[in-house]
Task: inverse folding
């Protein structure tokens, strides 16, 4: 259980960083059609929800003593 909480925290940080860079990269890509922009927006939202879910799982996991 001790390593599980550390692994969750690392996954949360990595997910948040990749989501941020992915969103910025796709948002400023000017040659993308509008439908693709909407699809990427939905996918980016799902990535942020994944990061939030990982954070919640990290917070509710009890510490190993």
Result:
């Amino acid at each position: 259980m001790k390593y599980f909480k550390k692994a969750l925290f690392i996954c949360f940080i990595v997910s948040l960083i990749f989501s941020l860079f992915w969103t910025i990269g796709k948002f400023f890509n000017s040659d993308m059609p509008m439908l693709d922009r909407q699809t990427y927006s939905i996918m980016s939202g799902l990535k942020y929800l994944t990061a939030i879910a990982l954070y919640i799982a990290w917070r509710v996991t009890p510490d190993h003593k």
The first helix runs from residue 2 to 27.
